[in-house]
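Lecture notes, unit on binding sites. The following record was shown on slide 14. It pairs a sequence with pyridoxal-5'-phosphate.
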Amino acid sequence: PTGAERPRRWPCGGGCSVGHCHPLVVQAAHEQNQVLNTNSRYLHDNIVDYAQRLSETLPEKLCVFYFLNSGSEANDLALRLARQYTGHWDVVVLDHAYHGHLSSLIDISPYKFRGLDGQKEWVHVAPLPDTYRGPYREDHPNPAVAYASEVKRVVSSVQEKGRKIAAFFAESLPSVGGQIIPPAGYFPEVAEHVRRAGGVFVADEIQVGFGRVGKHFWAFQLQGEDFVPDIVTMGKSIGNGHPVACVATTQAVARAFEATGVEYFNTFGGSPVSCAVGLAVLDVLEKEQLQAHAACVGSFLMELLGQQKAKHPIIGDIRGVGLFVGVDLIKDKATRTPATEEADYLVSRLKENYILLSTDGPGRNVLKFKPPMCFSLDNAQHVVAKLDAILTDMEEKMRSCETLRLQPEAALLSPPLGECALLLVLGDPELGSLPSAVAPSFQTFCL
Ligand SMILES: Cc1ncc(COP(=O)(O)O)c(C=O)c1O
């Protein structure tokens, strides 16, 4: 089916920004595949047209484009560009960030390196600009400046050790960090500190760019009209599932990279098919006005979730912009302790209802809403109604200390007696409750 006949398949998040198997994107790939697919050593109009179209979405300064196959390749190239341009080596990243799966990127991803080889001496971590759970919260008079001062502090301590900053890397909206919306003005302040130290600002837009935030095409633009990163990396959504990624940068950075005399070559990056797909995705975004759609459906979703916050005390915070929304689940309002097990439970129950959400953030307690941009008002209503029903049911179970277990053996685990704890019981909800000797003193629920 084409156009209006086509069912809007929205549950495929991640890379499919304009909807799973969009016919125009599929057709563009198919048509180009029938004509020519070769590597970028051979000139083809598609690559030039695609670079031209992308440049129309970006500030004028970001006018040089490198095409690649994945977000990781894009961030790895960004790292090389930054180091070549600055002549420096060290990198500052935000806590709990993820920038990709290559060795170089595991090194700059606290989300990964903490569970692997640990932090390298050239990597420096600044706090997430999280105004809900971080050191500077919603009651702080200027959290943007306060969090940027933390970066300045990190940069200074690096310099005191005789080291030099090549780059500050951040997702424009730290998603893996817990769907964080940095306070406006934070990036320009950070960029000032980083550039003063001779480094560059890299905005990772791989999850969050391409119209998703609604008001702007790129999420870094939320930080102020005048703010321009030195390097922007993009991927995932730009190919709607096809492996396309891109690095946009300035003439100055690109010229410094070229000056090595060592060419950048990537066999499949920027192939005529990949660029045809990229162009088709841009066409769909424009034709279906998906950026405006994301703004409209996103505000409606936030409004519906706001109603849920008033009803369910487990919802501590709802934050978002366009179709990038986080629901921060807490155990209690005073401490804002992450409700990790409850979030896990909710995600499983939603999955039973054919709704696929994941959790993010250091506490794995932030429900992550990042649907394809064709997600509709009806879809928003449907998801929130299911969420409401599950939360109501869960609260009822917790109030009555009712225990359901899914695996009989899980009930045999001996809980920490003598204190009231939340016991997570894995198994089949139909199998019945924990032994009455255990149930009264423990709030329990099933997964
Ligand atoms: C913020 C961010 N940067 C980079 C990457 C790496 O992209 P890829 O998986 O396409 O290599 C990801 C992937 O999840 C990501 O979320």
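Take-home: The longest strand covers residues 165-171.
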